[in-house]
Amino acid sequence: MTRPDAIEWCDGSKAEYDRLMKQMADSGLAIPLNPEKRPGCYLFRSDASDVARVENRTYIAARSQEEAGPTNNWIDPDGLKETMKELYEGCMKGRTMYVIPFCMGPVGSDIARIGIEITDSPYVVANMHIMTRVGSKVLKALGEDGEFIPALHSIGKPLAEGEHDHGKWPCAPLDKKYISHFPEERTIWSFGSGYGGNALLGKKCLSLRIASVIARDEGWMAEHMLILSVINPAGRKKYIVAAFPSACGKTNLAMIIPTIPGWKVETIGDDIAWMKLGRDGRLYAINPETGFFGVAPGTSLESNPNAMKSLESDSIFTNTALTADGDVWWEGIGYEAPGKLIDWNGNEWEAGKAEKPASHPNARFTVAAAKCPAVAAEWEDPAGVPISAILFGGRRPDTIPLIHQARNWNHGVFMGSIVGSRITTAALDLKAGTVRRDPFAMLPFCGYNMGDYFRHWVDLGTRTQAGKLPEIFYVNWFRKTADDNWLWPGYRENSRVLKWVFERCDGEGKAEETPIGFVPALDAIDRPADVSAADMAELLAVDREGWLNEIESIRSEHYPKFGDRLPEVLIDELDGLEDRLKKM
Ligand code: O2Y
Ligand code: MN
Fold first, then answer.
1. CB distance 52 to ligand 1 below 6 Å
2. Could you say which architecture CATH assigns to the domain 6-30+54-218?
3. pLDDT, tens only, 514-530
C-alpha cells in the first residue's frame, strides 16, 4: 500500500544507529554536535507545524462511541480506515520503510508486550532505539507465532522522482495528521507527524492508550506514572509511583537528589508504569521504556542535575537552539546564551534582541535510562518493583495542601479521579483560572471509557488482601501566596515530602486526621530554610471554603461527564468529604 523504494528490517544494533545518524547528518536533517562538547549527540529541527502531540488529531476508533467514552475523540473505525488507506496509498514513495520489532518491558518479562512499528522516518528509528528494546532479540522472543501489536507510521510526505527533503523535516499538514487507535484490534495507525508521542508509537500509543485497554481486560494497570525508589539513612528502600499531568515535573521528581542528609532517591522510570498484582498480593511496577523523552527548557543543573549529566553524550536533541561552538542551549538551562545562537527554526538569534525563545517550549531530549547516574540497579527487573505509595498531583495555586494522605483505597481513587491543574491562560474550552481536570493524569492517554477506567481502579482495591495495597497521597508543589509567590521551593526540597510518605508507609510520620484525609502535623516535615512556620501552616491547612468550592465544581461539571459509567463509590466519597467538611 505505501510503496516504499526499499525495506529495511531493524536489528537494533549500534552499527544501525550510527549508520542512520550518518545518513541523516549527510542529508542535512541531523546536525552532529561538537564532539568536544557533546560526543555522540545530534540536533534535529522539526517543521514548525510538527512540534508536539496533536490531541485534536488523536482518535480512539472503538466500535462504539460509548466504548471510547466522553473524554476521547471518537471516530468510526471503518470510515477512518478508508480515509487513512487513501493517505497511506503510495505515501512512502522515494523513501525507505523501516520495520522495527520492539519490546515494551524487559524482553521475556510476563508483563512485556511486543510491537512492530513500520515507519518511513529514520529519526523515529533512532529514537525507538533509545526509548525501547529494538531488533533481533525481540524477533527471537516473538518466534513464529507470537503476538504483537501492529503500529503503522508514515510521516506522510512521499518524494517524487528526483525530489529531496534538502534537510527539511518532512511531515504532512495538520488536517492530514491522524494518530489513530483501534482498541478492539489492538492496532495503531499514525500518519503525517514525525514528532514524539505522535510517531514513537511504543510510548503513548502502545504503552498507554492500547495497553490501558489490554490492562482492563487482563486485570492490570497501564499508567502515566514515574517510578522511583526512596532509600532512608538505614538503607531501607521503598518504591513510589506518581501520576502528574504532562509538564508538571515528573522527570525532575523521578531523578531528584534529596536535600535531606542520608536520604537517597533512585530512578526506575519518568513517564509510564505498568503495574500488576504479584503472588504475594502486592502491586509490582515495571517501566516499559528504556529512555527518557524529556522537555529540555527548564532542565538545568539546579532543577535536574541527573538529567543534565545523562545528556553529556549520546543524546538526541529536538528543537533546542544551537550555539556557535556546536553545543545546544535552551531557556532555563541555567546560564546565559553564549553569544549569538541559531534558534529552533534555524534563524539567527541574540539574547535581548529576539522576540521569541531560541528553543521551542516543547523542545525535547532523548536519552537512554541507563545513562542516568541515579538509575536503580533493578530498573529492568522483569518482575518489577513492589510499590508502597501512589502519589497524585497537579498545579494548584490554592486549596490543595502540600500533601495529604487518603483515608483508604476508595478515597485514594477519588483523589486520582479529581486530579487537575489550574490554567493560567485561557484556552479554547476553558477560562483562565479554572481547573482543567486530568483524572489520574490519563485524560489524553486512556484508550477506553474513563468511567470504566475509574471502576477498574476501584476493583483493584477488592482484588488483594487489606494492607497489601499501596498508600495513596495527593501532593501539590505549586501553592502560591496571595501576591503570587511560591509558598514551597519545590525541586530538590520535595524530598522532604517523600520522607513523610516513606514514614507513613511504615505507619509512622506524625499526621492529623482531617476531613480531607491525613495531613502532616506542623512539625512532621522538616522545613527548608526559606519556608517559615507560618508558610508551613498555610501549606498544610485545610481550606474549608476552597474544598467546598472544589466539591461543587466536581459535582456540577466534572463527574456528570461520565454519566452512569461513574462508579457509585466515587459519589459516596464526594458526599462523605462534603459531610466531613461541613461538620468542621
Ligand atoms: O509532545 C510530544 O510529542 C511529547 S509528549 C510527552 C513526552 C514524554 C513524556 N510525556 C509526554 C506527555 O505529553 O505526557
Ligand atoms: Mn507523559
1. yes
2. 3-Layer(aba) Sandwich (3.40)
3. 999 999 999 999 999 99
